Every structure is written in structure tokens, then in C-alpha cells.
């Protein structure tokens, strides 16, 4: 049996097919999990992809939290299942309180769509277990609200527990402590603003995202 | 039950960047307003709540703020409540 990755689709999600394509390139199966269904269909890993879930009305990710599928994602995460939120998916996971902090508007008030360099800070997470600490990855960002913020106590805890997963080498959006991605205390839930699926083939300009997606599949294999 | 008009003023918490407000603040001097500072751009949400009294209406709207209307990590809020004048 090959691994099955569930890719959550809200109204307004727009990166779900890219994620499915990238996962399939790595030999795993991927399927959509519609937001109104209160289940993740027994998959081995979950990706909450980018886009504008529920139009990003009120705040980015704020309404997605109430979609029935998010209760199932929460239970899957609580049971140790690997969950990755990419871009808008990261925003959804913070609003759902599966990850701490919030994403506010970019410091320069510009929508940013460019390839950035990331530094892998820890390899004991569902998204980086196939990487090396200090590895530099070139991966695109594509966001307006990617400026990570949290209170000082949360930042202290993230640092002390080695929960900053990836940092920007050259901070593009004002994120606190150059944070591009973090994980939960269990290290199975990871959120990041850059899009690994958009760096999954040399034709796309970079295939550095594959190491991250391979890590996710490795984590899925452990819990499958 | 009485109808109460509630207004929720949402603003950035202290220390949270307000790039939109900062941009407007930088633009105002171009119009000659050189004496302006602390420009802030927030949100207003207005709603009508049927409740037994003003305190009950306020308590319910504050609960909505905690659960959905504001994100306590980055936003603070103020709720004001006033009884709606009955239609003539």
C-alpha cells in the first residue's frame, strides 16, 4: 500500500492540485479532503494548502477553523499524525490554535511573490526529517500576510524547544526572529509560509521543496 | 427581549505593526498635515443583538470577540452597546 496524503480543500483554496501533483511525483497517493466533510478519510498525512480559504474574510484563516474538516484535522494531529500547513494553511493552523502566534501583514505592505532562501533550523519535525541542519533551500513565497508574530513568552518557548523549523536567510516580510516556519510541541504539526510544492521540479526553478515533502512522507510512514 | 446595537472596535495590540496606518501617516504630510502622529487603521464590526438587557448583550458580544471576531494574539477590541430605538 502506498502512503495516502489528504489535501484539505476549502472554498478559495488554490494550491491543492499543485500539492497533489508534487506528492504524486514522490510516489505517494494524494487526495482532496473537502472542508465540509468532518473526516480526513484515514489518510497517513494531511496538508492544508495555500489559497484564500473562505475568501480570507474577517482575517486570514479565521473562518476556515470552523469548517467541519478542521475538527478531524485536529484529532488527527492530536493522535500524532503529521500535518503541514503551507502559506494560507499556516494561517489556518494558527487560527485553529494548532500552532501558536499569528501572521500579520508584511512589514512593507507589499504582496510578495518571489523565491527566497530558507535555512533549516531543526530536523526533528514532520517536515524536515530528511534535511540537514543548516541546509539552504530556495523556495517561493506568495503572500501578503506572512509576517509571523507572537508574544515574547511564546517566542522564548519556540526557541528553547527548538521549534523554529525554517528561517529566512534574508527576511522578506518582517517576520519576528526571521521565522518562516514553526512546529507544535509534538513536532508533528508544522506551518510555513513558503511553498514547497512550487519548488518540486527543476523546471519550476528549484526542486529544493522535495526534501521537505519527502520528510512529510517519511513522517507519514512512521505513523501509518 | 430588546434589540441592542453593538459596535466592536478592533485595533492592533501594542507592539503589533500597523503598516497601513504607518503608510497613511507618512502620506499626510504631503497634504500639509505635518502635525499628525499615531495614525492607526483598525476595523469596525457592527451588529444587532436581541438580549434581555444591555449587560447580557455586551457579555455575548465580548464572547464572540474572544471566539471569532478578534484574534487576541494580534488584536484588541472594545465593545459598545446601545439600545436600538424602536421603529416609529
Folded structure, characterized:
The complex is a heterodimer of chains A (224) and B (88). Chain A has 224 residues and is α/β, with parallel strands linked by helices. Chain A has one domain (4-223): Class I glutamine amidotransferase (GATase) domain (Rossmann fold), CATH 3.40.50. Chain A contains 5 helices and 11 strands, in the order E-H-E-E-H-E-H-E-E-E-E-H-E-E-E-H. In chain A, helix 2 links the parallel strand 3 and strand 4. Chain A is globular. Chain A starts with a strand and ends with a helix. With 88 residues, chain B is of the alpha+beta class. Chain B has one domain: Mth169, Chain: A, CATH 3.30.1280. Helix content of chain B is 28%, strand content 33%. Chain B has helices at residues 19-27, 54-69, and strands spanning 2-12, 43-51, 75-83. A 3-stranded antiparallel β-sheet of chain B has the order 2-1-3, with helices on one face. The longest helix of chain B is centred in the C-terminal third of the chain and has 16 residues, at 54-69. Chain B starts with a strand and ends in a 5-residue tail after the last strand. The relative contact order of chain B is 0.34.
